[in-house]
Design goal:
Blueprint (H helix, E strand, L loop, with lengths): L1 H12 L5 E4 L9 H27 L6 H29 L4 E3 H34 L4 H4 L2 H24 L11 E2 L6 H5 L7 H34 L4 H9 L2 H24 L3 H26 L1 H23 L1
Parallel strand pairs: 1-3
Antiparallel strand pairs: 1-2
């Protein structure tokens, strides 16, 4: 009976606010221009990634393991962008900085889920390049469409489960004092630090999420390219080395664009003690700029997509000339 009363007392003591207040940028004149800039990024991201999805869906020559990974990355880019920028526009540009408790948890889930998909997809693409260069004769046996079709649903299931666990544990903490979130969205760390009861489990799960979707992917990608460079060193001619390395350029650019801004932001926050406004600007750009650049990089650096676009444009121009001649 005493244990039942203790459990009931613990449940009653958990206080959930009706709303949170997202502070965003504060005390900066003309900050609305920054949010308009984010809207331009949103527009470019949606158009560019939609084109990549359409090209891969319609062109049978792109139905390969590598482009299944690129397709998944474009989906993750669109998902993360939709989870972040429209809410930021509504919140700050239209002075609607209050967000309901449940909407805050939903926002937290989708931002972290799609961000985790981006990092894990980059790991899968690194594995694809590793097998293609280090084990070229076994590539089509190890990496094929069937493998990718099985791998990515498993990734979606694993990531969503881990992120859902992180978000669900927020419901176990009480918010009995401040409900002001020092961020530009319902960020996990700034939210659980508002708790007035013990949040050690939330801190531990946050560390697991960071380790699983930031630190571990960087280590795996580094080891993959270490193996790739060792394999390249065994190739006798520079021409063949450069030809093999050229197939990795797009992926290396994606890795740098995704991981470096996040790492620099974390380091700057630890070493330089960034102001809240500087943290908001740096982290928001680190999240929203890579989804905009990813499809542009693949269009500019991938021969298959460039050749496909040239073919489409030449066919269109040819049809225009035929219509004019008529």
């Amino acid at each position: 009976m005493n244990s039942v009363n203790a459990s009931l007392s613990q449940n009653i003591s958990i206080v959930h606010p009706q709303y949170f207040f997202i502070i965003g940028l504060s005390g900066i004149p003309n900050s609305s221009y920054f949010y308009i800039f984010l809207f331009l990024i949103y527009f470019i991201t949606m158009i560019a990634n939609s084109i990549v999805l359409l090209l891969i869906t319609l062109e049978r020559s792109l139905h390969s393991p590598k482009y299944i990974g690129v397709f998944n990355l474009a989906l993750a880019d669109i998902g993360e962008t939709n989870a972040l920028i429209p809410n930021m526009m509504k919140t700050f540009l239209f002075d609607s900085q209050y967000i309901s408790y449940n909407a805050c948890l939903s926002n937290m889930f989708f931002v972290f889920f799609f961000s985790s998909l981006q990092s894990v997809t980059l790991v899968v693409l690194a594995y694809d390049r590793f097998i293609a260069i280090c084990l070229p004769l076994r590539y089509h046996v190890i990496v094929n469409n069937t493998t990718m079709v099985l791998v990515f649903p498993a990734i979606w299931a694993f990531n969503s489960s881990l992120v859902a666990l992180m978000v669900s544990l927020i419901t176990r903490i009480s918010f009995c004092e401040s409900t002001v979130i020092q961020s530009y969205f319902c960020d996990h760390g700034p939210v659980y630090r508002l708790a007035c009861n013990d949040y050690n489990i939330n801190k531990s799960v946050g560390f697991v999420i960071t380790s699983s979707f930031l630190i571990a992917p960087m280590i795996i990608i580094f080891l993959s390219y270490l193996g790739i460079f060792l394999a390249l060193s065994k190739i006798t001619t520079w021409e063949r080395r450069l030809k093999a390395l050229k197939t990795c350029v797009s992926h290396l650019l994606l890795v740098g664009i995704y991981f470096l801004p996040i790492c620099f932001t974390y380091l700057a926050q630890l070493l330089l003690s960034l102001t809240p406004n500087a943290r908001v600007i740096s982290t928001s750009l680190a999240y929203v700029v890579p989804p905009m650049l990813n499809p542009i990089i693949y269009v500019l650096n991938t021969a298959e997509i460039k050749n496909l676009l040239r073919k489409m444009l030449s066919n269109k121009s040819a049809s225009i000339r035929v219509n004019i001649s008529k």
